[in-house]
Fold:
Amino acid sequence: MEYTRKIVVLVALLFTVIMGGSTGYHLLLGWSWLDSLYMTIITISTVGFSEVHQLDTTGKILTMALMITSVVVVAFSITTLASLVVDMQIGRVFWRRKMDNKIEELHDHFIICGYGRTGKAVCDQLERDHEKFVVLENQHERTETLTAAERLFIAGDATTDECLQRAGITRAKGLVAALGNDAENVYLVLSARQLRTDLRIASWASSVEAERKVLRAGADYTISPYVQGGTRLAHHLTSPHTMEFLDHAITGRTEIRLGEIRVPTGSGLSGKTIQETGFRRELGVIVIGIRRPTGEFLFNPRPDDVLQDNDILIGIGGLEQLQKMKRMV
Structure:
């Protein structure tokens, strides 16, 4: 806004000089408006053309005053514009350095590769869930959008090891491959898996065949919008209220949320039954599933099921309740 204000001031000054000179020639010397404007322009621009009409003493004084004024205004404009350019460049350098410092401080964050429709939707959801993330994007229009949204990003090719390292892949919790085509996503997943064998990777795919390739490349989870979209539409037709409830719980459009929490090794909850933890009685959180370290899934576990180290608890409850549960665990 400050840069815009200064530019508006410069334009207003130049306009004032032009109008002032034209009005002076028209009123004092009786010239037509076109001749007055032409004389003012050639005087300000110092092109050296001859006068439109013969100048008397009044005309010479007016022309000299116009010359001096225009030189001052032009000099001031050039100085101000140069200062603006330098300030903007320095501001961009400091802004980029500040953003890089924030990215370097990230831990347990997510790396979103691509800021198209899918990538933006992922960022919106992570922001609603108060999760930390950084975006990798190389299209200028999208980086401008990221800048306006004040989201952390790196302008570069997400498939390169350098960009992934700058995004903190060694400290990240997970990565989303949402680039423009399947080939890029497969290459990205291969690169990310080479750098981190234990990283959680989710990828976009355009077809079932592409899903298989991305999974073979090392992704933990993949989704095809067309296949998944068709499946969800069918479920909305057959079980509309169930799907509406799940949609609200997943997207955070209601107080009820779905969440998962890992039971760390040596936790005081390890060896206790679900009933003994008091999750439902004290917090109001219902444990609807348990993922064992062996990969076994327990759906709708019984109150007397015993928790183990590194169990993943799938719970449903309010956001604040789930956060309290996470702190308890």
